[in-house]
Specification:
single chain; 618 residues; alpha+beta; globular
Length: 618
């Protein structure tokens, strides 16, 4: 492990040229640093000997900025003399002693760092232009003092560095940018001649989480078409048939005390329809349910699990669970106003021995601490109170926690029914940018936790950005009041392949992937289509309103990608159950090599499920 001083060798302004420069910031009084106290507790939990003290600091990295620009940013944005110590490059101040070991944690380049937009905004407010080639990044230092060993450092690093979204830095990187060329490659997947074993291998290698029956169903469909599928077609079928989007468990028959019963989901819908309560305004057809509050107002309620992403990244996975259900409230009817969040969370026993935690899984203590922090963080930052919830413990949740995130909102009853695009409407994708984070987030929900999950499903976890969500909420509230929106949907599980296709039920439509605003180059067309990058909404607008809405989005610092809505003939894939309509999601033609368009017509993309059976005991 290089010394703390040598870490900064490449970032010193004296080195020629200094492509990436750094500013590091530490609290003057570490005894009041809550993050330090948290890490000290983690060290105690891990029983790491020899560490006598800890200091935690933040590092800001700047690429292609002048030394004078970095110095000004340090003085006017990052430094606060009363309670912070800061230093530029390797000029470490007297108050920061050289540690025996250290861990430096940074986001991976292909995922969202929610702090960067705020940093860019502050830099531009100083009058320093963010020109082509300039880039910023942040990292966190944990300095270890005493007789800390390399073995102890590695043990702590394994706890602090979540490989699904983070990396450990050994020195200042040579570049902060994700260097990649545009990638218009559309791959053809040869499945027609595969046997069952080969189909299973394909499902495993591409992280589709489809079983043999489902893969054979897809194969038979394309045999009927007389051609091989593309990568986009395979991927969007997998997400539509995932547990998250398709609810396969709830749509499966159940065997209770030896008797087969209809799927729970089907029975819930049937019972609700039979009761026909006048207080139920909308259910099973929209992003959230709506019940009557008074003669003018409805209450929207939505809850969904985010257990899989929380299992490998408990803080971020929980944050995006809260963010997702807030989006669902916003996308109910013709637009609702979120007023609060709630959560139900479950973990394994907190005192379980570490040897009894399955390989590749986080200890329940870590899950508990980080999930609770994620719930609090997102709601607080977006400005919504946590109004209720529950927490419970059971050994069955040692490997994978239960994270049920919920939100409630208010909506005028005259706007409570799901909107539909009008003929000639334009689709607008607004909010955040598209990146690799969240790819396979939906399919990943169908998998079991293994010792390879954190490594193989590293891009499955979305990264929440609550400050951006607050701006989206402000813009949508203006549009709701002006009655500009004909239909609204959120980009969640399955990305645009779910969100846009729901607009195109019965008619089909075209998504111009090249029109999307991306975080960086290099995404394949199918990755554009299935990315679950957070804080994005899809609106259907009259053509005459598009210019005004785009200008409003830009004013609030949001991306606004305009999509034409050209009619296409929708096609359907039948699910493994004979005679039932399955996933309505294949392109109406085979895309040419390099074609960055995906065509799909669909309602909710899983009307039937494979013939799974759940055995239950009363």
């Amino acid at each position: 492990m290089p010394s703390f001083h040598s870490f900064f060798a490449k970032s010193s302004p004296e080195s020629s040229p200094a492509n990436v420069q750094t500013v590091s910031v530490f609290p003057r009084l570490p005894e009041f640093d809550q993050k330090r106290q948290l890490i000290q507790q983690q060290i105690a939990d891990l029983d790491i000997p020899g560490i006598e003290d800890v200091r935690v600091g933040k590092m800001y990295l700047f690429e292609r900025f002048t030394e004078q620009e970095v110095g000004r940013i340090r003085e006017e944005v990052l430094q606060e003399d009363t309670h912070l110590l800061s230093f530029q490059g390797s000029e470490i101040p007297e108050g920061i002693h050289d540690p025996s070991q250290y861990v430096c944690v940074a986001y991976q380049k292909q995922v969202t760092n929610p702090e960067i937009d705020s940093l860019h905004h502050a830099i531009e407010r100083l009058g320093i232009p963010m020109q082509e080639g300039k880039a910023c990044q942040t990292a966190e230092f944990v300095l270890l003092y005493g007789q800390a060993t390399e073995e102890g450092r590695k043990k702590l690093s394994k706890q602090l560095v979540n490989l699904s979204i983070q990396q450990e830095l050994q020195s200042v990187p040579e570049t902060l940018r994700m260097v990649a060329e545009k990638n218009a490659t559309v791959e053809v997947i040869p499945i027609l001649q595969m046997d069952a074993h080969a189909l299973d291998e394909l499902s495993s290698s591409r992280r589709l989480f489809l079983d043999t029956e489902e893969m054979l169903c897809i194969q038979n469909h394309f045999k009927g078409l007389g051609r091989e599928p593309t990568d986009c077609e395979i991927e969007l079928i997998a997400q539509s048939w995932s547990e998250h989007c398709g609810h396969k468990t709830f749509k499966s028959d159940m065997i209770i005390n030896g008797k087969r019963k209809k799927p729970l989901y089907q029975r819930l819908k049937a019972a609700t329809t039979a009761i026909n309560h006048p207080g139920v305004i909308s259910c099973f057809v929209d992003n959230s349910g709506v019940v009557r509050f008074d003669e003018n107002t409805g209450v929207c309620i939505k809850a969904e699990t985010h257990s899989a992403p929380a299992a490998i990244e408990p803080y971020g996975g929980t944050e995006t669970g809260i963010g997702g259900v807030i989006r669902d409230i916003l996308a109910t009817g013709l637009g609702a106003k979120p007023i609060g969040v709630f959560d139900v969370i479950g973990f394994g026993p907190l005192d379980v021995d570490r040897e009894d935690v399955p390989p590749g899984c986080l200890h329940p203590q870590t899950l508990f601490r980080e999930v609770v922090a994620g719930v609090a963080s997102y709601g607080n930052k977006v400005g919504l109170p946590n109004v209720s919830g529950a927490v419970f413990f059971h050994e069955g949740f040692t490997a994978k926690p239960v994270v049920l995130a919920g939100s409630i909102g208010l909506i005028p009853l005259e706007k409570a029914q799901k909107g539909k695009p009008q003929p000639g409407d334009i689709i607008l994708i607004m909010g955040g940018k598209t990146g690799k984070d969240g790819i396979h987030g939906a399919t990943f929900s169908s998998g079991s936790m293994t010792d390879e999950t954190k490594e193989k499903d590293s891009t499955s976890v979305q990264i929440g950005y609550p400050v951006l969500k607050r701006r989206i909420m402000d813009v949508l509230e203006i549009l709701f009041q002006k009655n500009k929106i004909h239909a609204i949907n959120d980009v969640g599980g399955g990305g645009l392949s779910s969100a846009v296709s729901e607009y195109c039920e019965g008619t089909g439509g075209t998504v111009e992937l090249s029109a999307l605003t991306t975080k960086y180059q290099g995404l394949k067309p199918w990755e554009h289509y299935l990315s679950e990058s957070q804080e994005r909404m899809v609106l259907a607008l009259s053509p005459e309103d598009v210019e005004e809405v785009v200008a409003l989005c830009k004013h609030y610092g949001l991306s606004a990608d305009v999509q034409p809505r050209r009619q296409q003939t929708p096609h359907y894939i039948r699910g493994p159950r004979s005679g039932q309509s399955g996933s309505r999601l294949r392109p109406s033609r085979r895309p040419a090599q390099g074609d960055r368009r995906c065509v799909r017509g669909a309602s909710h993309p899983f009307d039937s499920n494979p013939s799974n059976v759940i055995a239950a005991v009363k």
